[in-house]
Write a structure and sequence with these properties.
Elongation Factor Tu (Ef-tu), domain 3, 269 residues, binds adenosine-2'-5'-diphosphate, 6-stranded antiparallel sheet, alpha/beta, Rossmann fold, single chain, 5-stranded parallel sheet
Length: 269
């Protein structure tokens, strides 16, 4: 254990919801991902989130919502996080190391699940920043490829470094023994950056509105008959994309009432 977390970890160990960190990867000075042990009893649907965190200075759990980035068949749980220098949780969480413990409340919830969508031919996953996390789970779930003929993941970040976690994950998918074959020919990846040069520049909302995305991918525009969508990003991003999807005739669904698209706010700070 790191010296920093020694005291905290000792205290967490006495809690019922402690899980052990097994791997940490830093993607940039602003982004990292980590894996923890999975409670034996935890069942979840790909795309859902749980509350995770550390013990605060006051001895009380400091928890935030985090999408589970690993698929439901994985033995461990993976998370993808931003590092906020003065963020109450992430300023500390970014220092975790294998062997450390975190708190994980094993009560998965969320709307970015297949159950909240009506059957369709094509599914779009729209992410900005760490909003990629729930799709990291869904993209590794065989159900995604069983349900749809075509899976399109768009990821918009300020910089190329912001895309790296997603880019590597998608690259590995195609070599994956479990779903590599299902993915081939079905998955389209459309990464864009807004503040650094890359092959696709601009906000995905702009590129949808002016038709660039459809031209680049050689496909028909979004329609309620064929298309389903899941959206995960900042509040403004979610609002703008919602408006756009509604303009194509898609309606927002929920677990209790499946429709054509669903939205969830990405964890920030
Ligand atoms: P931009 O650089 O033009 O603000 P952030 O780091 O602020 O969470 O943003 C992540 C990415 O999402 C950035 O590339 C940002 O573009 C983009 N973005 C932010 N707000 C919106 C929005 N309302 N619609 C589309 N893209 C957005």
């Amino acid at each position: 254990l790191t010296e920093l977390n020694q005291a905290t970890a000792t205290k967490i160990a006495t809690l019922p919801d402690a899980q052990t960190v097994t791997e940490v990867r830093h993607w940039s000075d602003r982004l990292f991902s980590f894996r923890v042990t999975r409670p034996r009893s935890l069942r979840f649907r790909s795309g859902e989130f749980v509350m995770i965190g550390l013990l605060g200075d006051n001895g009380k759990p400091l928890l935030r919502a985090y999408s589970i980035a690993s698929p439901s068949w994985d033995e461990e749980l993976e998370f993808y996080s931003i590092k906020v220098p003065d963020g109450p949780l992430t300023s500390r969480l970014q220092h975790i190391q294998p062997g450390d413990e975190i708190i994980l409340r094993p009560k998965p919830v969320g709307t970015l699940v297949h159950d909240a969508l009506l059957p369709g031919k094509r599914i779009w996953f729209f992410a900005t920043g760490t909003g990629f996390a729930p799709f990291a789970s869904l993209l590794r779930d065989p159900e995604t490829y069983e349900n749809y003929d075509e899976v399109i993941i768009t990821h918009t970040c300020r910089t190329v470094a912001g895309l790296e976690y997603g880019r590597q994950l998608i690259e590995k998918l195609e070599e994956d023994p479990l779903i590599g074959e299902m993915v081939a020919g079905k998955l389209r990846y459309y990464p864009t950056t807004t503040r650094e040069d890359s092959p696709h520049m601009g906000r995905i909302t702009t590129l949808l509105k002016d038709g660039t995305v459809f031209r680049d991918l050689g496909i028909d525009p979004i329609s309620p008959e064929t298309d389903r969508a899941m959206v995960c990003g900042s509040l403004n991003f979610n609002r703008d994309l919602k408006e756009l999807l509604e303009s194509y005739g898609l309606r927002e669904g929920a677990n209790s009432e499946p429709r054509e698209y669903v939205v969830e706010k990405a964890f920030v700070g």
